[in-house]
Design brief:
The complex is a heterodimer of chains A (about 220) and B (about 260).
Chain A lengths: L1 H15 L7 H17 L3 H24 L4 H5 L2 H7 L4 H30 L4 H32 L4 H7 L4 H15 L6 H29 L2
Chain B lengths: L8 H32 L12 H29 L4 H31 L7 H22 L3 H33 L14 H49 L5 H11 L1
Helix pairs in contact in B: 1-6, 2-3, 2-5, 2-6, 3-4, 3-5, 3-6, 4-5, 6-7
Classes of the chains: A mainly alpha (about 220), B mainly alpha (about 260).
Subcellular location (chain A): Cell inner membrane
InterPro entries (chain A): Cyt_c_biogenesis_CcmB, Cyt_c_CcmB_bac
Organism (chain A): Bradyrhizobium diversitatis
Chain lengths: ~220, ~260
């Protein structure tokens, strides 16, 4: 347990310090959201209707882009080999790394959501709904994306290929995240049903992600 | 002869060389019967002659999912049992599965044009098949991105299994999304029991297409094994030239390596 918490603390510290690049994700998120009005026009009514979708797409892309480095930096300096060889199960170590990554890179996205909601003309309730769905849904993005990151480090390929592989897998999260937010703003639907499914997706990915990533690392690194 | 006996590629090649002609013949015969029967099948009272697209479309759609299942079993073979032919099977199946998925989409959209008045509708089934197609393409891109086959095999196996877990979830969520966005705008086939005059040709076609897949898959696996043998022979030749011919034959070795690449 101490080994895992030490791993989490180390990863967060690295991510937040110079060269870590966790906060670039927030900057990217901001930039994507700012770009949107230029594409669809500065119509506030339209923006508030598209708001949840824009925020969710921005968060999806931001969390995907920062994931690229999840294992790569550790692989380059050799600490990934130490983690693989240590007595801590690799599955738990992967889960700890993903948790640290979510705390350092995913949580800032949710903190930034209210500010971006103002730009998109979302009211208080809508912004709260989007932030809540992001809080429930981004762990699923991180833990699914971790599989892609593990494949990336074993193949020495990153970037576009991994995005192509991981993005289809994150479609369910996107669907239910946007559905739950829309349910609060306009929908005839209740908020509870899509939100519970979103939480379920996060929990499933919490189980599947570490095992798949650990399998990929164990078979891929030699 | 069990599965483990097939681990020897030479034995596999010998066996498939004997089996393949029979499989191909059975495929051709069944396909001919199926096509003949579907041509004779009566027109639907609502859909007219376009209902005959179904005889091609449904087997393709069925195989698009079946092939992913085959690849998942092969991936288990790669990761769990380390069966040497499992990654060959997985690699050979991906392009075939992608083709079946593409044909299912294409015939579906050709059917949709007269029936729905549009080539593309964001219908739940169409959308989830499209996502399946994207995942096939991603998997093929993964195979092509890495030059070492065994390394690519393990990565692709992990991805295939994750996809196998995820595909039902995607299917379910797309269904949800579709009912949320456009309730009941699309007429649906199925649900009601098919008439016998449609069912029998459809079953024959489904079996014929499955046989077609098995034939193509075995042939593609043979090609992949032979391709790997050629590759390793080229590597051996290249290394022999590189290590022996330090004097004089360097130019020849370079030209050979270009030919190998």
């Amino acid at each position: 347990m101490t080994a895992l918490s030490a791993l989490i603390r180390r990863d967060i510290r690295i991510a937040l310090r110079v060269g870590g690049g966790a906060l670039i994700g927030v900057l990217f998120f901001l930039t994507v959201v700012v770009l949107m009005p230029f594409a669809v026009g500065p119509d506030l009514a339209l923006l508030s209707r598209l708001g949840p979708a824009i925020l969710w797409l921005g968060a999806l892309l931001a969390s995907l882009l920062t994931l690229d480095r999840l294992f790569m930096a550790d692989h380059e300096d050799g600490s990934l080999d130490l983690i693989t060889m240590s007595r801590t199960p690799l599955e738990l170590a992967c889960a700890a790394k993903a948790l640290a990554h979510w705390l350092a890179a995913g949580l800032p996205l949710i903190v930034a959501t209210p500010v971006l909601g103002l730009l998109l003309n979302l009211d208080m309730v809508a912004t709260g709904a989007v932030a809540l769905t992001l809080l429930a849904g981004t762990p699923a993005l991180t833990f699914t994306g971790m599989i892609g990151a593990a494949l990336a480090v074993t193949l020495h390929r990153g970037g576009l290929l991994m995005a192509v592989l991981v993005l289809p897998l994150s479609i369910p999260v996107l669907i239910f995240g946007v559905a739950a937010s829309q349910a609060v703003i306009v929908g005839p639907m209740t908020f509870g049903a899509p939100f519970s499914i979103l939480c379920a997706l996060s929990l499933v990915s919490l189980v599947v992600g570490p095992f798949a990533a650990a399998a990929s690392l164990r078979h891929g690194l030699d | 002869m069990t599965l483990i006996d097939l681990a020897n590629p030479t034995r596999f090649l010998a066996l498939t060389a004997r089996v393949l002609p029979w499989l191909a013949a059975a495929t051709v015969i069944l396909l001919a019967i199926g096509l003949y029967q579907s041509a004779l099948a009566p027109d639907d009272y609502q859909q007219g002659a376009t209902v005959k697209i179904m005889f091609i479309h449904v087997p393709n759609a069925w195989l698009s999912m079946f092939v992913w299942g085959v690849m998942s079993i092969a991936s288990l073979g790669t990761l769990v049992w380390r069966h040497p032919l499992a990654d060959v099977a997985a690699k050979a199946a991906a392009p075939i599965g992608a083709s079946f998925t593409f044909l299912a989409l294409l015939t579906g959209s050709l059917w949709g044009r007269p029936m729905w008045g549009t080539y593309w509708e964001w219908d739940a089934r169409l959308t989830s098949v499209l996502i399946l197609f994207l995942m096939y393409l991603g998997l093929m891109a993964l195979w092509r991105a890495v030059d070492d086959p065994s390394r690519a095999a393990r990565a692709a196996a992990v991805l295939t299994l994750v996809g196998a877990i995820n595909l039902p979830i995607i299917k379910f969520s797309v269904d949800w999304w579709n009912t949320l966005h456009q309730p009941a705008s699309v007429m649906r086939m199925g649900g009601s029991a098919l008439d016998k005059s449609f069912l029998i040709p459809l079953l024959v076609m489904a079996i014929a297409f499955t046989l077609l897949f098995v034939t193509l898959h075995l042939a593609a696996m043979r090609n992949e094994i032979l391709r790997r043998r050629v590759r390793s022979l080229q590597m051996m030749q290249a290394s022999r030239i590189a290590f022996s011919g330090e004097s004089g034959s360097r130019g020849e070795g370079a030209s050979n390596e270009v030919g190998a690449a």
